[in-house]
Amino acid sequence: MNNICPYCGKEMELGYIQSGRGIAWRNKIVHIAAFSALSRSAVRLSYALGPFDGHVVEAYRCADCKKVVIEYDEDAE
Ligand SMILES: [Zn+2]
Rounded to an integer, what distance in angstroms lies between the CA atom of residue 26 and that of residue 42? Predict the structure, then answer.
């Protein structure tokens, strides 16, 4: 993924979004107790750092547009 903002064309800053649990995109909100990045309706965005280190995904941030852009790999574990 390149670091050019798709909204304004300026350079974005590379960083990371971390979570104690997996990070997934869904087309609807689900009850948090039912949350699983592994369910069929979820698109997994993050990968596990290790058994006790949570999950992480690279993300580019545009400070001007206040946008964060994530590129995901559906085959990532
Ligand atoms: Zn921008």
Answer: 5
Distance 12 CA to ligand 1 centre (A): 7
**Residues 62/8, Cβ–Cβ less than 8 Å:** yes
Q: What is the pLDDT of residue 41?
A: 76
Distance 16 CA to ligand 1 centre (A): 17
Distance 51 CA to ligand 1 centre (A): 35
Report whether 10 contacts 70 (CB < 8 A).
no
Mode of pairing for the β-strands spanning 24-25 and 54-62: unpaired
Q: Identify the pLDDT of residue 73.
A: 78
